[in-house]
Amino acid sequence: MAGYYRISNADSAIRYYEKSLRLAEEINVDTIVSLSLENLGNLYLQKGMPYTALEHFIRNYEFWEHKGDQGAMAFTLCDIGNVYYSNSLYEVAKNYYLQSLHLFQKLNHKLGLSVIYNNLGMIKGVEKDYDSAIYFFNQAIRLRQQINDQFAVLHSRIYVAETYLKQNKPEMAITLLDEILYLMNNITLPYGEEDEYRISTYILRGNTWQVMKKYGPARENYQAALKLANRINSGYYQAEVYFNIAKLAYEENKFSEALKTAELASGLAKRFDNIGIYRNSLNLLARLNEKVNRHDLSSFYYKKSFFYTDSLLKEAITGKLKDVAKAIELYNLKVQNEKSEERHRRQQILWISIASILFLVLLSIAAYLRVLARSRKEFENIANASFEGIIIHDKGTIIHFNRKAEELFGRKASDMKGKAVYDFFTPEHREFVRDLGQSDQEANYRAEIEKPDGSHIEVEVLSKPFYYKNRKFRVAAIRDITRLQKLIRDNLILWTAVEQMPDMFLFTDKNGNVIYANSAFEKITGYKRHEVQGQNPRLVKSGVHNADFYKSMWKTLESGKVWSGEFLNRKKDGSLFWTRAIISPVKDERGEIIYYASVSEDITEQRKVAEEMRRKDLLYRQMASNLPDTAVFLINRELKFELAEGRALTEIGLKAPDFFDKNVNVVLSNNQAHLEEFLLKVFEGQFIAYLTRFGEKDFQVILTPLTDTDGNIILALMLMKDITESMQREKLLIENERKLNELLETKNRFISILAHDLRNPFSSILGFCELLQDNYFDFDDSKKIEFIGHIRHSAENTLNLINSLLNWSQLQQNQVHVKHVYVLASEVLKEAIESTEYMAKQKGIILKQQVEADTTLLTDPDVLSTILRNLITNAIKYSYPGSEVVVRGCLPVNGKCYEIKVIDHGVGIPKEAISGLFNLSNSRSTEGTAREKGSGMGLVLVKEMVEKLGSLVLVESVVGQGTTFTVRLPLES
User: Fold this and answer.
1) Cα-Cα-Cα-Cα dihedral of 597, 601, 604, 606, to 10°?
2) Are the C-beta atoms of 563 and 553 separated by less than 8 Å?
3) How far apart are CA 232 and CA 235, in angstroms?
4) N or C: which end of the chain has fewer CB within 10 A?
């Protein structure tokens, strides 16, 4: 992905910026001088001329150094680093990036810091330290989000996706790239770069699918990139896309396609200065020709690639000579221009005279041609003024095609003349239109035109014959009726929907007289449509509502507003029914009311149910308010409370009015996350019971459906009983039982350690002592030293075990007191490593200290050292001789804690064994790689000491690959 905008014609851009630089230096415009130097450096870098690029960047740095602008100096140091990076001098590049980082940190320049972190991520990627690369990219993303630079965030995320691909995590890469592409389509990218970044994203997606061996999606992405590159006419990116398509075809064994596209890629890359693609295309062509047994061509492309690479190296030597030659050439041109200025002025006078004469001749010719063309022009003007497409054809061959016809057919008149008009109708209409077009009759018909993009439009055609100079022609007037036909279909759908709706629909004039009534009106009221047409809806009045009710309604409607309310109406048979109505005025284009539309729902049964519920409401409340330690709720289908009563309401800090007609999520949103889901199940007929907690109180909740006489569920009953005291008693019993079991298990384990792990080393000591005592004068000195070493080793193991048991005992009795002091992380790591070096050397294991980010910790250094010694000892025990154990200190991305990792490449820990590592009752020591013994106490002590420090210990392990223990220490606020 480009770090700056790619310019297709770099040479012309260089000439422009060289001229801009000279002018800016002459008139002392600092910003233009710097901008020109920067752009020239980038352009020469793009052309593969690194030393020339470097010269311009160094000039720019000296310019800003003289001005004392540290921010501009930092950006220019970054540019210099980019030159070395592009030429694979990564250590030099990193040095310049770090210098730039130092300046940006001093200035707290977030934009600059984000650029440098991004570049350091690129360096780490080249070094194959992919985790660090992603860390730096994420740092860049964090800063770019803070300054709300969405485009730059996407830029860094693309690098993250690219790193995932390098890590052989293509699924993660494709997921991130899909997200990036979606965001690209929903934010505004910088002008001139939107398509470039989409192209690069599509190419990377194609690469990712190709790695996954999914060639279809890979090809689709490359084609999408090619389409964009063609649209912006970028030869630079066309070369890159063709090269990737060629690689894909090569991988699919489609060598003919691969050869063709690789040749296209190399040609475009050379023409548009895409150096990397040109070199890679030559290598690919060499491999492809070798595959198809064209060994001479294969050799030719290998040599060409070699000599091209060699020519890039020569640029460093010849660049200065070219600059000198250019200066001499410019001086000679200046002298020649001064000599030829006078001669040029004389030639201009002669050319002006000749041009004047030619102009007069052309005017005369044009006047004569206008007279000849006037009648034809007048006809074309009349035809082009028509609102309909006009076509004149001779047996189908188009003679005239006006502008409206161009619009309808989506084609230019110049392209249509001489072609068969029938070919541009859809296949199903083509024969029909041809038959009518060749007849002698006037025809009026409908058909469909097929446009160049494949879309169809419906047209109405009026076609008739006419004769001119004894020849028959036909003229056709064509009108687009697509919208008209859609309107007709939509109106039919709307009318059908209104006719079939279950609610009553009335359409009246502005005086309220009925124009239309739907079938639901007939069904509900008993009146036929012809009985109400022209009548006023007062026909169904019940007489219950007074004059003020209707006066208020008409006042709302005549003001142009929508009215809604409930009516008690009378059917034709005299029975009463309730409706809930919405009446809306319909206005014309001037905003005047011309009609009224009314939709009315029969709510008679709903009103009956509501009345019945009101009758029962009092009974529910009386029952609920007298239940001890209980609250009773009634909830309707809208999940709103209709009743809340009971003594337990006070226990949750609420009163009955807090619930009425409010949604369960509003009143209980913080306590009952799943209540809405449970209630929906209750309204499906389920019975639900569960335990929950409000504040400090425990409740048992029972949810049950309530039905009407027809068995329809109308309400949900919720009972909440305070069971805090009984729960506390039960929890206390369970906790006491758990602690008792733990103590028993700990006691048994402790006795086992004392019985087994202490006996073994003492047995060893006694055995060797007896051997020495009985055979002292028979053994030579080397044998005695060997036995003494065994005795010492057993004694050390015994001492370590006793220390561990004492430490564990002190922890159990809370006798370990943590003393926090300030200490450097690197010093703690160094001390822990030094204390275990002898053990590591005995086994031939290398201990490495890596401090990625040193910082001051507020902790107990003795406790932390004990933790680290146990972890390092454990790592040495399970590592193979000759391997490495790394102790690393680092700051995670969030920066809220400090992490110390102990990493080995030993036997690893089975997944199912990890959960019991820190538990004395579960911990079982296994033999080390050199058959070392252990008690299993070390990691138990680590866990308890880490908790004493208020910290956390984590384990990651893969069997056969090794284990990483991470101690996460909180940083001081």
Assistant:
1) -140
2) yes
3) 9
4) C
φ and ψ of 916, to 5 deg: -100, 5
Q: Where are the alpha helices (DSSP H) in 385-456?
A: 403-409, 413-416, 427-437
Fold of 386-484: Beta-Lactamase (3.30.450)
Residues facing 956 on adjacent strands: 964
Averaged pLDDT, groups of 10, the chain, 973 residues long: 48 82 80 86 82 86 88 92 83 88 92 94 91 93 90 88 92 90 75 74 92 92 92 88 93 91 90 82 87 78 61 40 34 40 38 31 37 46 66 88 89 88 88 81 86 90 81 87 73 70 88 89 90 88 90 92 92 93 88 90 86 74 76 88 82 78 75 79 91 83 87 89 84 83 68 58 77 84 82 71 65 69 90 86 91 86 87 91 93 84 93 81 71 74 85 93 93 65
Query: Exposed e or buried b for every residue in 681-718, given b needs 16+ CB within 10 A?
Result: ebbeeeebeeebebeebbbbbebebeeeeeeeebbbbb
Map residue 108 onto helix, strand or coil.
coil
H/E element, 958:
strand 952-958
Determine whether 656 is exposed, middle or buried from the number of CB atoms within 10 Å of its CB (0-12, 13-18, 19+). middle
Residue 23's φ and ψ, nearest 5 degrees, are -65, -40
The answer to whether the CB of 772 falls within 8 A of the CB of 787 is yes
Amino acid sitting at position 530: H
Q: Is the pTM of this model over 0.70?
A: no
**Is CATH 1.25.40.10 the right assignment for the domain spanning 6-108?**
yes
